[in-house]
TrEMBL record:
Keywords: Hydrolase
InterPro entries xrefs: Beta-lactam/transpept-like (IPR012338), Beta-lactam_cat (IPR045155), Beta-lactam_class-A (IPR000871)
Enzyme Commission number(s): 3.5.2.6
Start and end residues of each Beta-lactamase class A catalytic domain: 79-333
UniProt family annotation: Belongs to the class-A beta-lactamase family.
Name of the protein described by the UniProt record: beta-lactamase
Catalytic activity: a beta-lactam + H2O = a substituted beta-amino acid
Keyword set includes Hydrolase: yes
Record-linked Pfam families: Beta-lactamase2
Organism this protein belongs to: Sphingobium naphthae
Gene Ontology molecular-function annotations: beta-lactamase activity
Length: 372
């Protein structure tokens, strides 16, 4: 057997110096470690400022903060109110501020009409005459000049709530007993902060700043526009009429409109059949495609009614969540000069924030909350 030999690499390293060198390097590393251990720590500034303590926001606070952020998109005033229709939990921003309802008042008109149906004083297939004295502009105004023209209550409700037809609305307002009868119906439900003072023609007169005592709407409106070109400019540019926006007539707070929707949905105001018919008609609303429904998931069931008039943009309705629960939402914008796109976005953002809140917020206080 040949004798054991060391490898060429091993032979090149003198063995008498290997062990001392290893021990020296280990001692140097140890002393260096002790030096680091006993050396003073760097100041906190070396790592940047200390982190701020986290402040946990509740889901409600986040929602209200979002409402306030959306309101900043307008140069006017924004009011938002939402309610879980199962628990009654309510969240609002400027919820007790009065806003012009514009065509959103037609929700109150519809309630009064359905209450008459429930009382047996009216039938949905009753034919109501189209009195030429009630004709204003647009929509079915042309039908009022036809002798003997009439439409069913059902069809008039559809025109009023789905197309926001002012002429159909004023026929129903007259059959409801006038604006005061509609207000009495609303207050009789315990709803405070919502009043109806005019039919649509006289609401438009007030928005134009005129108060004619007689004559057709077309004649009076035409004369006013010729006398004051600002009326035409305001309409074309969708600018607010600030004096009109501060009037108390035909106004509602977001919370009051929310209370009215809740009274319908709960069965306190209408029979189950009338409530179902009302919301079915509102579910086919053709106006305001970019408002409440604008940012909700496709296919979300929404029954709503819009309102628009000179710097005012509104939408009110009931939204169904994927699990079958429902919430009501009211969004009002007034005195706004930024245009309908900004108002539509505010309303759409508010509706989507409420949708996510009621669907996903794991823990919520089930009590009234608002921010004025």
């Amino acid at each position: 057997m040949p004798p054991l030999t060391r490898s060429p690499l091993a032979r090149s390293i003198p063995t008498r110096f290997s062990a001392p060198r290893v021990r020296a390097s280990r001692l140097a590393a140890a002393f260096a470690g002790f030096g680091l251990f006993f050396a003073p720590l760097p100041s906190a500034d070396a790592f940047g400022p200390p982190p701020r303590p986290l402040v946990e926001q509740t889901a409600q606070a986040k929602l209200l903060a979002e409402f306030e952020r959306f309101a900043a998109l307008s140069d006017g005033t924004v009011g938002i109110a939402v309610r879980d229709l199962q628990t009654g939990e309510t969240q609002s921003f400027n919820g007790d501020t009065l806003f012009p309802m514009a065509s959103a008042y037609k929700v109150a008109v519809a309630g009064r009409i359905f209450a008459l149906v429930d009382a047996g004083a009216l039938r949905l297939d009753d034919q109501l005459a189209l009195d030429p004295a009630l004709a204003s502009e647009g929509g079915i105004a042309w039908m009022f000049s036809r002798p003997g023209a009439a439409l069913s209550v059902q069809r008039l409700l559809e025109l009023m709530l789905q197309k926001s037809d002012n002429n159909a609305t004023d026929v129903l307002v007259a059959r409801a007993g006038g604006p005061q009868a509609i207000t009495r119906f609303v207050t009789g439900l315990g709803v405070n902060g919502l009043r109806v003072d005019s039919d649509t023609a006289h609401l438009l007169y007030r928005a134009m700043g005129i108060h004619p005592s007689s004559g057709s709407f077309r004649h009076n409106a035409g004369a006013a526009r010729r006398a004051d070109p600002m009326i035409v400019t305001r309409d074309m540019r969708d600018l607010p009429n600030l004096s009109f926006a501060t009037e108390i007539e035909d106004t509602s707070t977001p919370r009051a409109m929310l209370d009215l929707l809740s009274a319908y949905e709960s069965g306190r105001a209408l029979s189950a059949d009338s409530m179902q018919r009302l919301f079915t008609i509102m579910a086919h609303c053709e106006t305001g495609k970019h408002r409440i429904v604008g940012m909700l998931p496709p296919g979300t069931a929404v029954a709503h009614k819009t309102g628009s008039l000179n710097g005012t943009g509104n939408d009110v309705g009931v939204v169904r969540l994927p699990d079958g629960r429902r919430f009501a939402v009211v969004a009002f914008v007034m005195k706004d000069g930024k245009g309908h796109k900004a108002r539509d976005r505010i309303i759409a953002e508010a509706a989507r924030a409420a949708y996510d809140y009621f669907l996903y917020a794991p823990e919520r206080a089930h009590g009234p909350t608002h921010k004025s």
